[in-house]
Amino acid sequence: MKAIEITKGVYWVGAIDWNIRDYHGYTLPGTTYNAYLVVGDKIALIDSAYPGFDNQILERIRSVVDPKKIDYLIANHVEKDHSGTLPALTKLLPGAPVYCTANARQGFSKHYDTTDWNFRIVKSGDTLSLGRDRTLTFLEAPLLHWPDSMFTYLVEEKILFPNDAFGQHIASSQRFDDQLGKEETLRHAQKFFANLIIPLAPRVLKKLEEAGRLGIDIKMIAPSHGVIWRSYAADIVNAYVNWCNGVSKDKVTIVYDSMHGSTDAMAKAFAEGIMEEGVEVKVYVLKDGKAEGTHRSNIVPDMLDSRAVLIGSPTLQNQMYPTVADFLSYLKGLEPGKLAKKKIGFAFGSHGGKGGAIKLVAADMRAAGIDVINEGFEVYYRPDEKELQRCAEMGRELARRVKSL
């Protein structure tokens, strides 16, 4: 296993996890755990990998230098997919300083036996010279996405090591954005943002502003998951700014489940009306979130750049359908209302008794920060032709509203 030089004296020495398919509650096509070796007169290792990937990390380091020659360990984040090999490294390098935030030190002590770890606590603006024109600057990033998180910046090469920010979950033989392709890389980055970063949007914008005030000029972004942004670093920063600000398209996402086809028929009628007005629409049926393309984590990226969201549910035992409840629980955790511009939406569905599911759906949508524009549309048993026509007309009305926003 070989290291890959990303610029002179800076190497990717991470690990590829080809097999992981679920993490943080969403589906993955595999991922990478990126670690970086910075070689000056002194040598620093930035981040590590999930437990069990020690050999990949050490073999890649060994292709550049003897791992025992590492002088400093930089720990941007406590979470085990970034720190799981640190115990092995601290044993290999007894006494080597571990640079991290104060919150990280506390977090590490709850995950590992850190009795013999040589912690060096850093704050925003602190630096570490590696000699030979190699200076690391640290930037605290609390709650991006854990309280302990921080960014590391290699001043001379203008490389930002932001840990989870700007990452993507993908297992690939390509290490760079231009190798994987701009659109493909942005697609994976959008899914990563939609499933992990949305609740942090206000903090992301503040952190980018802080980086600007500190004079951090970014030429390359080396995240801890996915490929490295060397050609399109400005594009992903701009994308994050747009996503955080709620910039969206003339687009509607419809999410629903159906027991006997009634809510399904309504969803399709809404979609037809929306399309008639020339607005893009994405339609997802949940079905336990297991079918390819309909897992909740594959839906929220489309919601991210949609101006409107429709959520449909039949009423079951006076409640919303379980799959819809699951999706809305996930959505409330993501808090799309944290985006600078709110999305609009409404609920729909059918029932065979007293109904009421759509009121619960609308309440959960509001709790997620979506601007519910009315109490929705609910039909008794199967929708008749007139009711389907009403769905289509409501779809057209919504599309016109979307285009006016």
UniProtKB/TrEMBL annotation:
GO molecular function: electron transfer activity; FMN binding; metal ion binding; oxidoreductase activity
Entries under Pfam families matching the protein: Flavodoxin_1, ODP
Domain Flavodoxin-like: 252-399
InterPro entries with a match to the protein in the record: Flavodoxin/NO_synth (IPR008254), Flavoprotein-like_sf (IPR029039), Metallo-B-lactamas (IPR001279), ODP_dom (IPR045761), RibonucZ/Hydroxyglut_hydro (IPR036866), Rubredoxin-O_OxRdtase (IPR016440)
Origin superkingdom: Archaea
Name recorded for this polypeptide: F420H2 oxidase
Gene designation per UniProt: fprA-2
